[in-house]
């Protein structure tokens, strides 16, 4: 049944954002998206974009080639067409750069910058990549230290490219505010000023630290302020992730000591000396030893991913808004394609989009890296498009799908929009398959669905009722009947039933008048031609053949012939019948103009009147070329056999004359020549 469903429509559309899309459709529905961007240098549509609600595909990078020792943090960024990751080695005080080239699926090359002449923070624990778009400069902030005596904050400057060798400046630890900092976050707020935050993970601290760069220049030394324990809502915080939702800033902090998450509400700006914190608990006991957290907004929802150090598991927390409600799901130890797994993950990066895939990376204490890919689905008939007006497409199965649209990619004018389309299963229905009928037959078509509100058939051609689920049709030619069913849930199922009409045509030819004794060729030009047809003429009287398209007929009286043409190839053996009426008229004497005595063919070895409606023959005479009478009779059925006095007459031209009366009383007289052929 499903394969018969061609087109479906949605009743409502989401017109917000950069493009217009239906919000709800059914499986197999043809979808038309419409861009609202009038001018752009490039367009990219992803119709089956990766969805963070799905299960990721894992990949494992071996430690041998990456020079990692007790990695403590990782982050990724895109610069131009290239992708980079940065990793901290906690035990060896090293800063690593991974260059993936133009694809996050590549095996990266690694640059180990070491401790940058001993300026890198000791025992580095946290890093954050940020771009100053005003000055077009890249920076990586690094925090580290095991206690208040050796904890510091540093900034690595890559200038206009992450491919450059960085310079480094260490800001130290003003007033010993930092105490084993983690969860570094740096951002430019709506006032264009730069701010930052971190959490102190030392069990004697458990506080939130605020960095104020005091203006628009990210290069100056920030002022550091300890905002306190926020009501003792944090317990050995291991990481911090930030999100801005509905104009408000929120931090989510993982607590390693008591296996909980704390939400910190800052309000509309990043400057808040008294933020409000709420401990959200263990997320339904899905957390055991949370080591890191990343949070991202994707297609109208917010997703957080938490790594668990002890169990080597990944937990997903989904929320419609930062204020909840929160739905946590333990995804377990995400299997990797090469049979490896997470192994005591210490950190997880941001989630970064690569075309229609969403990727994140995690560092493991066994010095390996794991990659998680939420890849595009394969349920759309078209995967992507680079046209302003994308092609129509559909989804094969029910589900929730992300449509991703980006214009002016890589330019300052770049804009991104994402919408979700809910695809509902096709409602249950019973539908007649495409069917074959003979011309002028009637067939019953069925499209029954109990849940449907209304139904409409089109075209309204040779159909008894276009608003019923069971109809009768009798088309003269092949018709694709279009059926549209409306459902209360918003689906409009639009399908087709093709009624193929087997058009067998019999053409016996036009009705005609036939001279008495004459022969005519039956059949017309419209008869179906081919080896898959058989022909049958009836009655069989006075016909040269009964199974060919064009037989000869010479009936002596008015006669009606029937031609039946039957199609052999279709299962119905469709046929058509046509008639031809021959009206025989006695208007003249009718004779052949030559004959061949002794030929053995009765139709050509005698010479006589062909008329069959003569009731009286006054005379029928034949003369040789010298005028000698060679044959004479008054019997219309008598014929000359080509002999004279019992001897074969000579080859040549002979003259005949005849006179008589037809059965209608009409007098007919004629004369002419006949050639005797030897």
What would you say this structure looks like, in words?
With 678 residues, the protein is mostly beta strands. It has five domains: 2-50 and 384-424, Immunoglobulin-like; 73-347, Neuraminidase, CATH 2.120.10; 430-502, Immunoglobulin-like (Sandwich), CATH 2.60.40; 512-585, Immunoglobulin-like (Sandwich), CATH 2.60.40; 594-676, Immunoglobulin-like (Sandwich), CATH 2.60.40. It is built from no helices and 56 strands. The strands form 15 sheets. Strands 1, 36, 38, 40 and 41 form a five-stranded mixed beta sheet that branches. Strands 4-34-33-6-32 form a five-stranded mixed beta sheet, with no helix packed on it. Strands 7, 28, 29, 30 and 31 form a five-stranded antiparallel beta sheet that branches. Strand 25 and strand 26 form a beta hairpin. The relative contact order is 0.11.
Write the layout of secondary structure elements.
Layout: E1 7-10, E2 13-14, E3 19-22, E4 24-26, E5 34-35, E6 43-49, E7 57-61, E8 71-79, E9 82-89, E10 94-101, E11 109-112, E12 124-132, E13 137-144, E14 152-159, E15 167-172, E16 181-188, E17 194-200, E18 208-212, E19 223-226, E20 237-245, E21 248-255, E22 260-267, E23 276-279, E24 290-298, E25 301-308, E26 313-319, E27 327-330, E28 345-348, E29 352-354, E30 357-364, E31 369-374, E32 384-385, E33 399-407, E34 415-424, E35 430-431, E36 435-438, E37 443-448, E38 454-458, E39 470-473, E40 479-486, E41 491-502, E42 512-515, E43 520-521, E44 533-538, E45 552-553, E46 559-567, E47 575-585, E48 594-595, E49 607-608, E50 614-623, E51 629-633, E52 639-640, E53 643-644, E54 647-648, E55 652-662, E56 667-676
Parallel strand pairs: 4-34, 36-41, 42-47, 48-56
Antiparallel strand pairs: 1-41, 2-3, 3-5, 6-32, 6-33, 7-31, 8-9, 9-10, 10-11, 12-13, 13-14, 14-15, 16-17, 17-18, 18-19, 20-21, 21-22, 22-23, 24-25, 25-26, 26-27, 28-30, 29-30, 30-31, 33-34, 35-37, 37-39, 38-40, 40-41, 43-45, 44-46, 46-47, 49-52, 50-51, 50-55, 53-54, 55-56
């Amino acid at each position: 049944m499903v394969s018969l469903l061609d087109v479906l429509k949605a009743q409502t559309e989401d017109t917000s954002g950069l493009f217009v899309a239906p919000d709800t459709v059914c499986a197999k529905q043809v979808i038309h998206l419409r861009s609202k961007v009038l001018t752009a240098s490039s367009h990219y549509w992803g119709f089956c974009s990766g969805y963070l609600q799905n299960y990721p595909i894992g990949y494992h990078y071996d430690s041998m080639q990456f020079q990692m020792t007790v990695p403590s943090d990782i982050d990724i960024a895109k610069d131009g067409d290239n992708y980079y990751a940065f990793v901290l080695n906690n035990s060896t005080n090293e800063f690593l750069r991974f260059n993936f080239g133009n694809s996050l699926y590549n095996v990266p090359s690694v640059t180990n910058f070491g401790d940058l002449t001993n300026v890198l923070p000791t025992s580095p624990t946290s890093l954050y990549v940020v771009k100053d778009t005003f000055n077009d400069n890249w920076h990586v902030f690094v925090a580290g230290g095991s206690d208040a005596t050796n904890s510091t904050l540093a900034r690595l400057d890559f200038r206009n490219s992450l491919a450059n060798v960085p310079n480094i400046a260490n800001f130290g630890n003003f007033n010993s505010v930092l105490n084993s900092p983690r969860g570094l976050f740096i951002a430019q707020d709506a006032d264009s000023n730069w701010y930052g935050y971190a959490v102190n993970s030392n069990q004697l601290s458990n506080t939130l630290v605020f960095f104020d760069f005091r203006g628009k220049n990210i290069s100056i030394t920030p002022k550091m302020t300890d905002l306190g324990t926020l009501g003792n809502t944090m317990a050995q915080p291991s990481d911090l992730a930030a999100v801005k939702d509905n104009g408000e800033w929120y931090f989510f902090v993982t607590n390693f000591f008591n296996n909980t998450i704390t939400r910190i509400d800052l309000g509309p700006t990043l400057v808040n000396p008294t933020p409000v914190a709420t401990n959200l608990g263990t997320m339904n006991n899905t957390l055991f030893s949370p080591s890191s957290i990343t949070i991202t907004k994707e297609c109208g929802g917010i997703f957080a991913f938490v790594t668990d150090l002890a169990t080597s598991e990944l937990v997903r927390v989904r929320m419609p808004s930062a204020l909840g409600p929160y739905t946590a799901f333990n995804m377990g130890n995400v299997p990797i394609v090469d049979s490896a797994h997470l192994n005591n993950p210490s950190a997880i990066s941001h989630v970064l989009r690569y075309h229609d895939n969403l990727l994140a990376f995690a560092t493991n204490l066994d010095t390996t890296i794991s990659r998680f890919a939420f890849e595009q689905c394969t349920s759309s008939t078209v995967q992507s498009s680079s046209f302003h007006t994308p092609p129509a497409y559909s989804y094969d199965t029910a589900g929730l799908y992300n449509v991703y649209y980006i214009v002016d990619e890589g330019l300052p004018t770049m804009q991104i929009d994402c919408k979700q389309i809910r695809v509902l299963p096709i409602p249950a229905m019973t539908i007649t398959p495409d069917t074959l009928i003979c011309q002028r037959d009637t067939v019953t078509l069925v499209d029954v669905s109990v849940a449907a509100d209304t139904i409409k058939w089109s075209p309204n051609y040779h159909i008894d009722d276009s608003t019923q689920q069971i109809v009768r049709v009798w088309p003269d030619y092949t018709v694709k009947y279009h059926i549209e069913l409306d459902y209360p849930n918003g689906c409009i199922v639009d399908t087709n039933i093709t009624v193929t009409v087997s058009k067998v045509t019999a053409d016996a030819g036009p009705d005609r008048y036939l001279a008495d004794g004459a022969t005519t060729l039956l059949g017309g030009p419209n008869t179906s031609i081919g080896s898959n047809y058989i022909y049958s003429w009836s009655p069989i009287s006075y016909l040269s053949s009964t199974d060919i398209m064009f037989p000869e007929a010479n009936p002596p009286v008015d006669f009606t012939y029937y031609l039946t043409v039957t199609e052999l190839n279709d299962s119905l053996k469709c046929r058509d019948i046509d008639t031809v009426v021959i009206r025989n008229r006695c208007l003249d004497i009718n004779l052949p103009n030559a004959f061949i005595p002794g030929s053995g063919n009765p139709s050509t070895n005698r010479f006589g009147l062909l008329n069959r409606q003569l009731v009286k023959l006054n005379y029928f005479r034949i003369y040789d070329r010298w005028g000698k009478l060679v044959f004479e009779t008054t019997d219309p059925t008598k014929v000359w056999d080509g002999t004279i006095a019992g001897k074969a007459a000579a080859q040549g031209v002979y003259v005949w004359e005849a006179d008589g009366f037809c059965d209608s009383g009409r007098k007919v007289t004629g004369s002419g020549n006949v050639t005797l052929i030897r």
